[in-house]
Amino acid sequence: CLPGLSLAASPPPLPVVASFSILGDLAQVVGGERVRVTTLVGPDEDAHAFEPRPADAKAIAQAKLLLINGLGFEPWAQKLAKSTGYQGQTVVASDGVKTNMLEAHQIDPHAWQNPVNVMRYVHNIAAGLAKADPAGAPLYQANAAAYVKELQMLDAWASAQFAAIPAAKRKVITSHDAFGYLAAHYQITFLAPQGVSSDAQPSAKQVALLIRQIQREKIRAVFVENMSDPKLLTQLSKDAGVKPGAALYSDALSGLGKPGATYLQMMRHNVTQLAAGMKLN
Ligand code: ZN
Question: How far is the CA of 144 from the centre of ligand 1 (A)?
């Protein structure tokens, strides 16, 4: 046995840092065994309200590739990279995605909620990895192409689930405005008391208006999210006399062994829950 040979055959994995759990999953899928992915905002954590820890700065300083969502989702990430003197490549995964605007004339950052956009994410990630590790380019391209096929199947399946629900019933209440891209792609109306960032607090008047709308339009599809405080939605459901459904995964994956541990699993869970909820409307 010649240990030197096996070392030459497999180079040390490329250190990659992803700003949040969904990007971490995509980076792992595309990079396979050639990458070692560190995720800053982990499962069930909120990227809007994230405060980097010293270990996060250390991970970025040692990385060869930094992956961020962009569109204003994680403004702390580039500040953090700058403060550590990071010299490597930064890939904005959402580059080239057709963006949606929010009512407040702000770009909606949650582009991954449409699987068609994630095809673009995966291409951007594969290109970034190939640039940082040219020898791995064929593998990254093959992994990306295989995953795009899975995304196409996911999209076709989700379209069929929602198509079975009459247009008038396609209304959902969630805690923050994270599902705009899913809403536009599958023609669903999402109403949220909290606006685009889970940081912002709605006024008592906004909540009262939403309760009246729930009652008037007989909306039963009310959902909390895995990474935001369920207090507001729980109270709102109680006041409106409806029972919230299972938590949706909006801005973060679940931990391992739970229904949203990968992007594909999280989307299947969300679509299943949303369709079941809307059928009660
Ligand atoms: Zn969000």
Answer: 25
